[in-house]
Amino acid sequence: MLQPRLLLRQSQKTSCQYLSIRNALPRYYATAVEPVKPEPTAQVQATAGFAPPPTVESNSTFQMRTYKPRTPGVRHLKRPINDHLWKGRPFLALTWAKKGHGKGGRNNSGRVTIRHRGGGHKRRLRTVDFQRMTPGKHTVERIEHDPGRTAHIALLNEEATGRKSYIVAAEGMRAGDVVQSYRAGIPKDLLESMGGFVDPGVLAAKTAWRGNCLPLHMIPIGTYIYNVGSTKGKGAVFCRSAGTYAVVVSKDDATTSGGNKYVNVRLQSGEVRKVSRDACATIGVASNPHYQHTQLGKAGRKRWLNIRPTVRGLAMNAADHPHGGGRGKSKGNVNPVSPWGMPAKGGYKTRKVRKPNKWVVTARERNHGKRRVK
Fold this sequence. Notes:
Layout: E1 4-10, H1 19-24, H2 42-45, E2 61-67, H3 72-75, E3 79-80, E4 95-97, E5 124-126, E6 137-144, E7 153-158, E8 164-168, E9 178-180, H4 188-193, H5 200-207, E10 213-215, E11 224-226, E12 228-229, E13 236-238, E14 246-251, E15 262-266, E16 272-276, E17 280-283, H6 299-304, E18 360-362
Antiparallel strand pairs: 1-2, 2-3, 4-5, 6-7, 6-9, 7-8, 10-17, 11-14, 11-17, 12-13, 14-15, 15-16, 16-18
């Protein structure tokens, strides 16, 4: 049986004076290393509860689970530590078997539209509620792993009816937490507690908690959100994968009368997007933020994830790829293209200059295969 060990991973921006000290320390494979908890500064302590989280210093640490290299497949295996996840089976009433639904990368006519897909372990897809229109208090029963997404999901139990539902869990959400959705409006008891009229500050203090779903016009500026919707009455479409979030930048509440009002949201790519003020958003950051540091350790785990090998065109024959053939490593002095002749560095430009996306306020930086300018 594999014996896990805890590896203390440091960021790459570690000064040289600490490198010699770290290399001189002995390595104890079965000893857990306590994470470093930087003390909050006075400026961070004085900030409001809805301000962005404090900036983590460059020497911050986090833990990844590694294993003693008893086999070659576990030597480089690294996984995030998620000991709080549910160990049993999912709530079967909210799942359905994924049998033949595009597992081989094929469309409804049987043609391969996505290469390098096939095989993989048997899965059951979870029905996740991205709309969250049901008001009232919901208790988090447990946090589960979802094989169909990178973020974790939370099983909710509605206190009034006992109905179960799955949502994308926020980072830090645990079993026993109580979350609520305010998409249907402000509850009557909450309105009475504010004196019969809406006070934005008091409303934010009572509603903008981690895991709560609110319309964007009720969320304070500068709040970290995920599961962001785009239009009124529909579900979330942005920031749904592990560790993703958006920031509320500004609101158009004080515009002239008439027309729709929007909220500007900045995504992690740097794009500032305009969404409806009645669209949904969940307070917090999507769970499992250390997923990006996962190392599978061997090629077989890729096959378990329904991913087949990718062969370079340079290694093929001339009949199979435009880069194939020739003596040695040569692609025939042609620009990099796909197997069907499409340019590989961004393809053909199809965006119309005179018809930009009206929902994008500030476009993200596009390099089209060039080295990113820092």
